[in-house]
Amino acid sequence: MLVPDGVFMVLSGFFLVSHTALPKKNRNFVFMKVTFLGTGTSQGVPVIGCRCRVCRSTDRRDRRLRTSAMVECGDRRIVIDAGPDFRQQMLRADVRQIDAILLTHQHKDHIGGIDDVRALNFVDYPTIRPVDIYATHATAECVRKDFDYAFASDKYRGVPEIRLHEIDPDTPFSAGGMEITPIAGEHSSRFRVTGYRIGRFVYLTDFSYIPPENIERLRGVDTLVVNALRWAEHDSHFNVEQALALIADIAPRKAYLTHMSHEIGLHEEIGRRLPDNVEAAYDTLQIEI
Ligand SMILES: [Zn+2]
Ligand SMILES: [Zn+2]
Ligand SMILES: [Zn+2]
Predict the structure, then answer these.
(1) Which residues surround ligand 2, an ion (CB under 5 A)?
(2) 81 CA to centre of ligand 1 in angstroms
(3) Which of 111, 115, 118, 131 has its CA nearest to residue 66?
(4) pLDDT tens sequence across 194-217
(5) pLDDT in tens, 158-194
(6) Residue 223's beta-bridge partner residues?
(7) C-beta of residue 197 within 8 angstroms of C-beta of residue 218
């Protein structure tokens, strides 16, 4: 269970201990664990048919499934986005139960794997465990359209059991036992996108613009994850320079880049061009906050 920042500050002040001075047992109580399930752009890396040196790399960190992350706090578990690699990501991370899925937007690389929540529905069969999915109205509408059979009045046997919750992109909400602050921004002129702040962790993917009032919601974070497609500019995703500008403004203790294309280069070479507090994430990377 996450302890809100304010409560933690009062407690630590009362006991006159710093964050790091807490015994390991209590640190586990306060901290959350984040697993990068996928760090690739919409086509993934390697790209089908591509012969570039990144797509031919034998470094496992250059193999990027579609972008997704898992946030664990105590025994609660939230997954952000469920793209076409969702099944493989759940198998790789050995997951058999999740408390909620948060969707960032309606692009297929973020929702294409929703049908595979069926396995999680039936893991304790005959008990059926519906999966709670949270999304803005526009994204929820797309989920209802793409997976109409899951929302039909006359469902056939074995369809995904989903409880779809519409969120307001400007209003905090609870999901999976965690308090979540949505961070609304723009993906492109046609699409809005929602990032999420959970305690001192922020996860932003597929952003190209964040309005100044929402940048204020990022202040004071410990760890910031933000999309960086490649070095060259792109009209609907931050490039590395734009991601680094946001990171410099927010000044988190640590930042990670995600949603990377093969054009960003070899993983082992990206890091040499980044500031000390910034790393390119890679699939299966786990961090504690
Ligand atoms: Zn995407
Ligand atoms: Zn390539
Ligand atoms: Zn997108």
Answers:
(1) 47, 50, 52, 55, 262
(2) 10
(3) 111
(4) 999 999 999 999 999 999 999 999
(5) 999 999 999 999 999 999 999 999 999 999 999 999 9
(6) 201, 254
(7) yes
Q: Looking at residues 7-27, what average pLDDT do you find?
A: 36
- Distance of alpha carbon 197 from alpha carbon 251, whole angstroms: 15
Closest by alpha carbon to 227, among 263, 253, 199, 203? Answer: 203
Sequence-ordered alpha helix ranges (H) in 173-287: 212-215, 240-250, 267-270
The reported pTM is: 0.90
Residue 262 predicted with pLDDT over 60: yes
| Residues paired with 36 in a beta bridge | 69
Question: How far apart (Å, rounded) are the C-alpha atoms in residues 29 and 84?
Answer: 33
Closest ligand, as measured to the CA of 109: 1
Cα gap 171→196, rounded to integer Å:
11
d(CA 207, CA 193): 7
Question: What are the respective helix, strand and coil percentages of the chain, to the nearest 5?
Answer: 30, 25, 45
Q: What spacing in Å lies between the alpha carbon of 231 and ligand 2's midpoint?
A: 15
Short-list 169, 164, 211, 226, CA closest to 194: 169
Distance 42 CA to ligand 1 centre (A): 5
Q: Could you tell me the distance, in angstroms and rounded to a whole number, from the CA of residue 260 to the centre of ligand 1?
A: 9
Cβ(69)–Cβ(37) below 8 Å: yes
Q: Are 145 and 169 in contact (CB under 8 A)?
A: no
Mean pLDDT of 9-34: 46
Domains of the chain: 31-286 (3.60.15.10)
